[in-house]
Amino acid sequence: MTATMKAAGRADLGVIGLGVMGENLALNVTNHGFSVALWNRTEARVERVIQRAGPNRQWIGTKTLEEFAAALSRPRRILLLIKAGAPVDERLDELVPLLSPDDVVIDGGNSYVADTQRREVQLRTRGVRFVGMGVSGGEEGGRYGPSLMPGGTRASDDHLQPILEAIAARTDPGPYVTYVGPDGAGHFVKMVHNGIEYGVMQAIAEAYDLLRRALSLPTPETADLFAEWNRGPMASYLIEITSQVLSARDPETGHPLVEMMTPAADDASEITTAVRDALFAATLCAYAQGMALLRAGSIEHGWNVDLREVARVWTGRCIIRASLLGTIMQGWRRTVQMAVAQGIPVPAVSASLDYFDSYRTAVLPQNLTQAQRNYFGAHTYQRIDRPAAGCVHTDWQALITAAATRRGGRRVADHHADRGGMDGTAATLEEPLPGGPDSGRQAPSNT
Question: From first to last of its 447 residues, what are the pLDDT tens digits of the chain?
C-alpha cells in the first residue's frame, strides 16, 4: 500500500475501523501534522481510504494487526472506531497480545459504561491502558473538529492530549476536549450527552407536530419559524438543522420531504410563541436532567467529573451545543394544555414540565408511597420530626385497631381528655430498628 511517512518511519496514532467516523478522524489527525497507521477488517477499505485522500498524507496502510502494531511509535496510541459490544471485545482479544506495557487503546465508540470499566480492568492487568472516550460532532465534526470526552487514567490522558487537543473543535475558550474522569467516565458522559440529544430531538419533533396539526402551518413556514428561533436564545445545532431539514424538498415531486397534516386552529401567533417557549423550557430541562445524572454517576463511581468543563466542551461542534440563557417561559403550560385538549402526544415537553414542577415543589407525595411500602413490605422510613432516630417501622395493625377503638369510644376519650386523663393513643407503635440509624429491615422477596 502506498503512503507518505515521516523520516522516523513510525506512526503517531493507529486507527482501527475506517467507517465514516474512522476515516474522517484519521484525515483530521493527518491535517494537523501527525502520521497515522490504518487497519480495517476488510483490507480493500484501507486502500480506498488512502487513494481517496490523495498522496500528501502521512499514512501507513497495513494488512494485518501484526503489521499495524509494528507500525506505531512507542508507547502506542490506538483508536478503535468500531461497533460497540462484542466486536470491541473480539478486536481487543486479537490486538492486546501484540501490545506492550503503557500502550494506550482508545474506544471512541458508544460503548456501554460497564463494558468500558470491565475492559479497563482487563487491559490494566496486561499493563495496557484503556480509555473510553466520548466523541460528538457527527461526520463533519470528525473531519474538522469534534468535541472529545476522554476517560481512563491521567497518565493515559497526558500521552493522548497533544493529538486530541490538535484535532478537537476550538474557539476562544480553547479546544473542546477535557479529561472527565477515570475508567468509564468518558463513556458515561457521552451516554448522558446522547440522552440529552435525543430528549431535545423528541421535544423538537413534538413542537413541529404541534405547529402542523394545531395550526395547519405548512412545512416551509415551519422551517422559517425554526430558522427564526435559531437566531435567538434558542440557537443550537439541532434547531439549526431542523430548519434545514424542513426546508428540503423532494426533487421528484417538489413537495417537502417531511410529512404534513393540516387540521384547523386559531391564534397562530400566540400559539407559535407558546410552542417556542415550551420547546425552550423542555430543552433546558433535558440539560438539567443530564447534568443531574452526570453528578449522581460521578458521585456513585468516584469519578470527580467537572461539570463546568463538560458543559464547556459541549458548546463547540457538538450535536447538543446550544446557547441556553434566560428563564422558564409562560408558554410552556399553555402548550401542554393545548396538546392535551387536542389529543396531540407531547411526552418530552409534558414530562419536562413535570420534572420542573417536581423540583420547585418542597414536599412531594412519596410519603404516602413510603407508608404503603412500610405497611405491606416492612420497608422502613424516617420521621421528618426525628430524623436522628434513624429508620423506624410502624405496627400498622395496632395503629388501625387503636384508631377504631378511638372512634368507638370517642365520647369517653374526650371526657377523659378534658380532665387531663387518657389521650387515646396506642403505646409504642413505632419500632426503632436494632443497630441504630444505619441498620435496615429485610423486606420480603416478593415486594
Answer: 444 444 345 999 999 999 999 999 999 999 999 999 999 999 999 999 998 888 778 899 999 999 999 999 999 999 999 999 999 999 999 999 999 999 999 999 999 999 999 999 999 999 999 999 999 988 888 999 999 999 999 999 999 999 999 999 998 888 999 999 999 999 999 999 988 888 888 888 889 888 888 888 888 899 999 999 999 888 888 888 888 878 877 667 777 765 443 333 455 677 788 788 888 888 888 888 888 899 899 999 999 998 878 878 887 656 555 544 334 446 778 888 888 888 999 988 888 888 777 766 777 677 777 777 777 777 788 888 888 888 888 887 887 787 778 776 554 445 444 544 434 443 345 555 544 444 444 443 344
User: CA 83, CA 423: separation in Å to the nearest integer?
Assistant: 70
Decide: 128 and 96 in contact? Cβ < 8 Å. yes
Nearest to 116 by CA among 140, 147, 92: 92
Tally of residues, the chain: 447
Find out whether 105 and 131 touch, Cβ atoms under 8 Å.
yes
**The dihedral sign for the CA sequence 104, 29, 180, 117:** negative
Positions annotated as catalytic residues are 190, 197
Angle between helices 347-359 and 268-301 (to 10 degrees): 60
* Residue 133 vs residues 79, 114, 127, 191, 199: alpha-carbon distances, Å: 10, 14, 19, 11, 22
Return the C-alpha cell found at 187.
Answer: 463513556
Dihedral pair phi/psi, residue 84, rounded to 5°: -65, 160
| Rounded Cα distance, 5 and 12, in Å | 10
Cis peptide bond upstream of 162, omega within 30 = no
Separation between Cα atoms, residue 60 and residue 356, nearest integer Å:
53
Q: Are strands 392-394 and 430-432 parallel, antiparallel or unpaired?
A: antiparallel
Q: Residue 328: how many CA atoms within 13 Å on its side-chain side?
A: 16
Helix 331-342 / helix 347-359 crossing angle, nearest 10 deg: 130
DSSP string, 390-427: --EEE-HHHHHHHHHHHHHTHHHHHHHHHTT----PPS
According to DSSP, the residues that pair with 104 across neighbouring strands are: 77, 129
Extract the C-alpha cell encoding 205: 419533533
Q: Which residues of 37-52 are buried (b: 16+ CB within 10 A; e: fewer)?
A: bbbbeeeebbbebbee
pTM confidence score: 0.72
State the helix-helix crossing angle for 86-95 and 113-124, rounded to 10 degrees: 10
Report d(CA 63, CA 227) in Å as an integer.
48
